[in-house]
Amino acid sequence: MRAGEQLPPLEIPVTRTLIVAGAIASRDYQDVHHDAELARQKGSPDVFMNILTTNGLVGRYITDHFGPTAVLRKVAIRLGVPNYPGDTMVLTGRIEAVDGDTATVRVVGANALGRHVTGTVTVTVPGREDRP
Questions:
Q1: pTM over cut 0.85
Q2: What pLDDT does residue 132 have?
Q3: Residue 123: what are its φ and ψ, rounded to 5°?
């Protein structure tokens, strides 16, 4: 773990099933996350991913990279453009700072419309320290 290190990108196909399943799993029953017609009536072209699903995918991205011993200490994200079915979100990351076995990672998730999510994740990985 070194400051400045780029994490490899992760491509996530945004399917209708992923959007609906994520909403159900997080108990977010807002119609805009599972009913395309009601989403259109509210001004959206289709259903769209909720923030809890996005948060989970950001966490997965970090733990996939740092391994099974990684512990998420803080996830601070902000949503931008929606994730609609049929798109692909590409998550990228850069280690901003390292303090012992803890790193702060800047994360961006983008799709065809622009940035869907931006934020930082603080992760501790026991046994992995920045050594000179």
A1: yes
A2: 44
A3: -130, 135
